[in-house]
Each structure stands twice: as structure tokens, then as C-alpha cells.
Design brief:
The protein is mostly helical. It folds into three domains: 203 residues, Growth Hormone, Chain: A (Up-down Bundle), CATH 1.20.1250; 54 residues; 236 residues, Growth Hormone, Chain: A. It is built from 20 helices and no strands. Helix 14 runs parallel beside helix 18. The radius of gyration is 24 Å and the shape is globular.
């Protein structure tokens, strides 16, 4: 049987018939992965439109959107097993059918459990189809399998699509209805499936890898823990945090799922996520960096939309146009990381310091910029800096996971942890903390301003109480945002100083194993019923 890649000569994809020009074959899979990345269940950019036309709350839609990220993160631990079990054709057709069903369900249902479950499944299949496409063209992107190079491509694709998806969703809703975005994606997914049926052959590797031995109970428990964590962060303010039985119940269920998983990992030979992955130095370091960095970046989800809409008076189309600024930053950040980190092999410490310096500049820009009369074009610099900083830190620390020295059995499990901490926790924990901080700060500043506004402004004492209250709230919001940006800027500068004082000298290098080595290792895991004898270093 044919393998994934030609053993010698120019790069080729045996899955695609020879009547397709060889140079066009990789672009065919890039086209597929673009369609897949655009299909994510719910489209968070249309959240306000969905709230206005359904019985759903903003928190319900956010929960469904983050459930898609959780499905993506949970898939990491088994994605290579599934890849070697099924051909690219089968994976793409299955993902296309599931994502079509997910788009149809999300366009019609108002059931929150169904919406969340659908998005979770959609995220799982979206990740698997993305791996099928990207792994097929990996040797075309980097013949030596330098993962720093590969991840630059991955993040310019994934983060770029996030921005473009928001833009296309808002403009689709503006010219028609938000449901039309789902129907557009159904059409594109159907087109992809037809193209797969015509242009992709069912080519499989020389070994058929069984799915026996996967810890599916552990997968469900990890998914439960991540969903509970996300539920607390998303609904915490709505339910008044620990005063509500829903939040306390979610915390207990989440801790129970986490505790059972940790207990099972002490005696299972092949747990879904092993203790070796959880205690790896690079994984712990990446988790700590993500926690600090994405908490600093949490203002993106809490402040930027509120400031642009409530203070500057932007409508939805002007708001979503800001995505172009972030997109330019993402492209620039990926290009910079490619030329410095991937090609010139700059140190991890240097790249981390640059990312935190850009984050500090982003916070400083908003601290000095935030006011009532800011033009849209003036927001370009901070949004550009945010996009560049986020993509740099993501590429660098995902590469560090690859370079962690874990065996290939454990490496995908580390990716699951990285996916949760980098994507799910980064999108929920920081905004939850900053949102609560903002609520208390606004209340404090509103109290101070309301006590003095009439004394210092006797000309407005005759205004109606409702108008005075609105003026106080707007002024308190601006002052509170500036205050929080200042505190976050101090934290960013302290974190940057700590990084600069470090003695890290490690540089990235190409260490990804060959597909044949991966297949042998996975087959050994399937055969092994007891004992964890599979120790294949990532450098093989």
C-alpha cells in the first residue's frame, strides 16, 4: 500500500490522483482546512444577533463557542491514533458530514445543552480534519519537520481564520440574517465533500492501527472538568459566583472529575492524560506563562467591545472592522517568529520577552489612549500589538511542548493540556477575573463621582436624574478601564523583568519523529496490555 508521502523525489500526495498537477495538490488541502476552520458550530461574532432573535443569553452562546475549543483540546490526545486508523478521505468526509449537521442544528436550536454538545462534537471533528490536512502537507512546508516553521503556518491559518470568520459573520448578518452564515458554511462543506469524493483516494498507511486501549472514560472526565471550569468562568458573574448553587455544583463536579482522573493516572498503564505529561517541566512552564499572559490579554474580551460600542458609539460593522487591525498583527507576528525563531533559532527567553514587551505596549497604548474622542484608526497600533504578541507566545510555547523530551505516547497528551490552558483557559479565565475586577472598580468610581458631580458642576444640577446617572456610569466606566489598564501594565512590566532576569539559553531545533517511527510506536502501545514500556524519544 502507498504511504502518506513519496519516499524520494519531489513532494507528492498519493491521496490525490495524478491528473491533478503536483504543485496544486498541497493547495487543495489548504483549501479544505480553510473551510473546516471556518466551521465552528456557533459564530461568536453573531452573538448579539442570536440573543435578539432567540431565547438564548450571551453566556449561553459563549459557553457553546468555548465548548468547541474544549472538543478540539480533548481530541489532541488521540488524534494520531485516529489518523493512522482511517484514511484522509474517510476523516474529511466524516468531519464534513458532522460539521454540516452541527451548522444546521446551531442555526435552529434554542436548547443550551444541545447547542453545547453539538459544538463540542464539532470541535472534536474540526481538529481531526485539520490534522488530516496539515499533516499531509507538513513535508511540503518543512521537509526537515521543523515544528517551529510548521507552527508559524498553523497559527497564521487558525488565528487568521478567527478574525476573518468574525468579519464574514457580521457582514453576512448585516446584509441578510445571521443564520445565513450557517447556510453558507453548509454549502462550502458540501462542496468540500464532493471534491474529496472526486479528488481524494482512500489511501492508508502500511499499518492499520486499532483504537482499542484508548481511555475513553478518562476523555469524558477531562471533558467534564474543562466544561465545568468554563461554565464557572462564563456564568460566574450572571449567577453571582459562589452565592449560586449552580456555580458551587459545577465546582464540585469539576473537582471530582479532575480528582478521579489524577487518581486513575496513578495506576492505569495508558491513561488519557498521564502524570508524566502533567508534571513535565515545559508543560508546567507553558501553563504558567499562558495563565499570566492571557489574563493580561483578557481585556480584549472585556474592554475593547464595551469601549468601542458604549463610549465611542461604533456600530457592529465598525466594531468588526477592528478585526482587520488584529489580523495584520497576527500576520506580522507569524512572519517575525518565522524569520527569527524558526529560521535564526532565537532563544525561547528572547521570544517570550518580546511577546511580553508587545503585551505591555498594548496595555500602555490603551492606558494613554482611552478617551471619548478616539478615532477608529487610532486603535490600529494597540490591536496590531495584541495580535502579534498573542501569536508569538502561542507559537513559541507550543514548540517548547514538542521539545520537552516526552515520548510520542505522552506528547499528544501534553498537547491536550496545552490546548486547554492556551485556548480554553486563555479565553475564559482572564476575562472572568478582569470582568469581576471591572465590576467592583466601576461601582467604587461611580460612588465617588456621584458624590462630587453636582458640587463641581452646578450647571448640570438641573438635569434629570436618569441623565445624571448615565453620565456618571459612562465616566466611571472610562476611569475604571484606565485604572485597570494601568494595573495590568504594571503586572506586564514585572513579568517582563522576571523573564529578562532568567538564564534560559535553549533554542528551538527540529526533533519531530518520522511517520514510520510514530506508527511503530502507536502499534506497540496497542499491543501492550500491561506495563508502560513505550519510550520513544521525540528526537527519533
Amino acid at each position: 500500500m502507498a504511504d502518506w508521502h513519496a519516499p524520494q523525489g519531489p513532494f507528492d500526495i498519493p491521496d490525490v490522483p495524478n491528473f491533478v498537477p503536483r504543485r496544486l495538490k498541497p493547495y487543495l488541502f489548504i483549501f479544505f482546512v480553510l473551510i473546516i476552520q471556518f466551521s465552528g458550530g456557533v459564530y461568536l461574532a453573531a452573538a448579539s444577533d442570536m440573543v435578539g432573535t432567540t431565547a438564548l443569553m450571551q453566556e449561553d452562546i459563549l459557553m457553546a463557542g468555548y465548548a468547541s475549543l474544549i472538543g478540539l483540546a480533548v481530541n489532541f490526545a488521540v488524534m494520531f491514533r485516529i489518523k493512522f486508523r482511517f484514511s484522509n478521505r474517510v476523516q474529511l468526509l466524516a468531519a464534513g458530514a458532522v460539521l454540516i449537521a452541527a451548522n444546521v442544528i446551531c442555526a435552529h436550536t434554542t436548547s443550551v445543552p444541545l447547542l453545547v454538545g453539538t459544538c463540542f462534537v464539532a470541535g472534536w471533528f474540526r481538529m481531526q480534519a485539520t490534522l488530516a490536512c496539515n499533516s499531509t502537507i507538513q513535508l511540503w512546508l518543512t521537509p526537515v519537520r521543523d515544528m517551529a516553521v510548521f507552527f508559524c503556518y498553523v497559527y497564521i491559518l487558525v488565528d487568521g481564520v478567527i478574525q476573518l470568520c468574525g468579519i464574514s459573520t457580521i457582514y453576512t448578518a448585516f446584509f441578510s440574517q445571521w443564520e445565513y452564515m450557517h447556510w453558507i458554511m453548509v454549502g462550502l462543506l458540501a462542496l468540500m465533500m464532493v471534491m474529496v469524493l472526486v479528488l481524494v483516494r482512500p489511501v492508508r498507511g502500511p499499518m492499520s492501527i486499532s483504537l482499542l486501549g484508548i481511555d475513553w472514560i478518562g476523555a469524558l472526565l477531562w471533558a467534564g472538568f474543562m466544561l465545568c471550569f468554563t461554565f464557572i468562568c462564563v456564568y460566574g458573574n450572571f449567577y453571582d459566583w459562589w452565592e449560586a448553587v449552580e456555580i458551587r455544583g459545577a465546582a464540585l463536579i469539576g473537582l471530582a472529575c479532575l480528582g478521579i482522573n489524577l487518581w486513575r493516572a496513578t495506576f492505569l498503564h495508558h491513561p488519557y492524560v498521564s502524570l508524566k505529561a502533567m508534571t513535565n517541566r515545559n508543560v508546567i512552564r507553558a501553563t504558567g506563562i499562558y495563565l499570566v499572559f492571557f489574563t493580561l490579554m483578557g481585556t480584549e474580551h472585556v474592554f475593547e467591545h464595551t469601549y468601542a460600542a458604549a463610549i465611542l458609539g461604533f456600530d457592529e460593522t465598525n466594531l468588526i472592522d477592528l478585526n482587520w487591525y488584529a489580523l495584520v498583527g497576527i500576520i506580522a507576528g507569524c512572519a517575525f517568529t518565522y524569520f527569527t525563531f524558526a529560521l535564526r533559532k532565537w532563544r525561547y527567553k528572547t521570544m517570550t520577552a518580546i511577546a511580553f514587551a508587545l503585551a505591555a505596549d498594548y496595555l500602555g497604548c490603551f492606558y494613554f489612549l482611552i478617551d471619548y474622542g478616539v478615532e477608529k484608526e487610532m486603535l490600529f497600533v494597540p490591536l496590531f500589538l495584541r495580535g502579534a504578541a498573542s501569536v508569538i507566545i502561542s507559537i513559541v510555547f507550543l514548540t517548547s511542548i514538542v521539545q520537552s523530551g516526552l515520548s510520542f505516547q505522552v506528547f499528544p497528551q501534553a498537547l491536550t493540556i496545552n490546548g486547554f490552558t492556551g485556548a480554553v483557559m486563555g479565553a475564559t479565565f482572564g476575562p472572568a477575573v478582569i470582568g469581576e475586577f471591572l465590576r467592583h472598580t466601576v461601582a467604587k468610581n461611580a460612588s465617588l463621582l456621584s458624590a462630587n458631580i453636582v458640587d463641581f458642576n452646578p450647571d448640570i444640577a438641573h438635569l434629570p436624574i436618569e441623565q445624571l446617572y448615565g453620565m456618571v456610569q459612562v465616566q466611571a466606566l472610562v476611569v475604571s478601564m484606565k485604572e485597570i489598564y494601568g494595573w495590568l501594565l504594571i503586572v506586564a512590566l514585572v513579568a517582563l523583568l522576571v523573564i529578562l532576569c532568567g538564564r534560559e539559553t535553549v533554542r528551538p531545533f527540529a526533533i519531530f519523529p518520522k511517520w514510520s517511527t510514530i506508527r511503530r510506536g502507536i502499534k506497540h502501545v496497542v499491543r501492550t496490555s500491561k506495563g508502560d514500556r513505550f519510550e520513544m524519544p521525540m528526537g527519533q
